[in-house]
């Protein structure tokens, strides 16, 4: 008998048997924990799991994290994750704490939990750990900072909550999130900008570099003025930094003094209009413009009237 035939006749045991049982590649951690996705619901998660262990827990037994810093999740991205979970299963377990018999509270993994519900899973793998309310808030915030695609304002708000609600100093905060103190400080300073600028940064109207330059302006009115100019003129970060250094934060930079332009008095304009109207027998408007320029408009009622005016304009 050949080696291939012998291999076919060897009974499958251990993990190989479980792998063959569910067909093809396993369904993520669920397959590793239970060996199959086809377990009856009454067999899932009804026995309390010990702390610091990983087990399958029914999604209906997991409550949302009341300290979750993210309140909006992109539905298209969640649906894509749900489709991936249908094929691959849960690759990384969520983290929960046990609050009662068969009752758990999510610490981290909100997107995975929501996507698992969309995928129709009855249970998901979860890491059970011990945590008080402050630890839950801290872990939820840090996970979002490290793993989510947060904008600068969301990161700054998360840092602020860690400082104020978790009583962390900026040095401690930097250690927790893997950032140096200056980086943490720069993010926290963004929250001192006017709301309009914070919204612009949140919505990617301006960049973090623009915002950091604006922070160095003392006047809120000047910050807003330069912010509007950045948006209107699409100024680069380097250009904004130069303007701030030079103190040119108003709507327009200071320009060299221009020579005074004579202004025609309104009364003289009216006299000129009356004189020309009498001369051409039609209504005449004299409109002054910038730099001493302007225009004269002569109205006519018909082609014949226009020809009459042109005849008057011709030199004698």
UniProtKB/TrEMBL annotation:
GO terms, molecular function: DNA binding
Phylogenetic placement of the source organism: Bacteria, Pseudomonadati, Bacteroidota, Cytophagia, Cytophagales
Keywords annotated in UniProt: Chromosome partition, DNA-binding
Single Gene Ontology BP annotation: chromosome segregation
Name of the protein this chain belongs to: ParB/RepB/Spo0J family partition protein
One Gene Ontology CC term in the entry: chromosome
Transmembrane segments: none
Family: Belongs to the ParB family.
SUPFAM superfamilies xref list: KorB DNA-binding domain-like, ParB/Sulfiredoxin
